[in-house]
Amino acid sequence: MTELKIRSTLFIAAGALSLLALVSGCRVGPPYHAPAPPAITAPNYKESTVNFHDAGGWKVASPQDAMLRGNWWEVFNDPELNALEEQLDINNQNLKEYFQNYMAARAEIAAARSQYWPTVTANPSFNRSKTSGNVQASSSSTTNNTAGKTSSLWTLPLDVSWTPDLWGKIRNEVREAQYAAQVSAADLELEKLTEQASLAEYYFEIRGQDMLQQILNETVAADQKALDYNQAQYDTGVGDYISVAEAKTTLEAAQSAAINVGLLRAQYEHAIAMLLGKIPTDFSVPVKPMVYTAPPIPTGVPSQLVERRPDVSAAERTLAEANATIGVGYGAFFPQVTISVSGGLESALLSNLFQLSSSIWSIGPSASQTIFDGGLYRAELHQYVAEYNADLATYRQTVLTSFQQVEDNLAATRIYSQQIIRQQLAVKDAQDYLDLEMVRYNTGVDPYVDVVVAQTTLLANRETLNALEVEEMTSAVELVQSLGGGWDRTQLTTPKQAGAKTTKADYTLQK
What we know:
Elements: H1 2-23, H2 79-91, H3 93-113, E1 119-122, E2 125-130, E3 150-162, H4 169-235, H5 241-275, H6 310-331, E4 336-347, E5 359-368, H7 376-442, H8 448-482, H9 495-498
Antiparallel strand pairs: 1-3, 2-3, 3-4, 4-5
Helix pairs in contact: 2-4, 3-4, 4-5, 4-6, 4-8, 5-8, 6-7, 7-8
């Protein structure tokens, strides 16, 4: 009779499990649909097609529907910059931090998936006890046979508990973790692009400082010759001392400016060392005055931009994560069913513990449902919906910002290049002005103060030209960054890839 009862109980439990497995296909919550990108009808970016009075200068690459791929910095054709960029991915500590954040997000997927499986616990124990010999029987007609006796109890229990995913709550939590891992992967790509762009900008700033140093060194040399000439004129009684004083003041001002150039260069060099994960004390960038011209940069077409920016992808995946959270909130309104199975061995003697007669077991389902919570679940659901709507606004704002940045940097690169053309003419004319003024001074027509004015004009124009050339290069780098570098959405980790099995080596404690 006992065996029949056991079989009947197991049969009922098996039937219940089968029914639950069928029902567990349900999943509550709103389905997710990625928001539609903005309707873009223009075939090209506005600032890439502006005709600036047929002026020369920087132009976008043709055809404009081409896109940067891979190592985007190679478009600048500078081997030294290429070598620095290659070191960045390996040694940058910020990238390592973002990568570990991504690995932590992947571990969260495994943690969420663990809820699919039963929880099995074991709690072996041994207990030896003695009762008091002075305990009186509860009835005058009954003798307490256990009084003063010692007893032992060996137990080896095994408990299994499983909560089937009836309403898709666990599946929504898994999806939530997968999307969060995708957000982390996109954040990693965004940080990588940011660090790469910063390195390129610092590099071109250093080259600009090297050129400025050369300009000021040439100015100092020219001013020293002028001072020597005026001093000689004064010593021979031909010139006056005011010309010497003016030449000396001009020289000292140029020397002061030349010394100051080293400050910014050192700071940019230290910044590059930090990006490469190196101690600034052990790192240096060789001095190399160079004049750069921004290369033609393939911009692609506006409709491709949302697929190329890692921050836009991160914002969209955040939206998917928020949608899955709403599903989790809906799941709280439904009952939770748990199936528990307990079994094990129990015996007073260790020698009898593993005998069949020492076995114990129990099985049975249970269900729990909150009847009244003061509106807690509904309030949480409303919170999740509001957060989703906020994330949707953030996504759309991110898209708008991306287009603004592209148009801003297109305009900056183009306008700086056209300004450079005019500034080059200004430098040439300033040089002619100085040459003419030197002739007039040497022939005694003009005083030396007029030469000083011409020298100052030339120096200011050369400094402005150098600053514009640096601005053009850094705006070109920022344009590449605003276009997403060489990245596109197809490179983003998929939910399946994010949830792929990891190894122990992936989570080795680093030293």
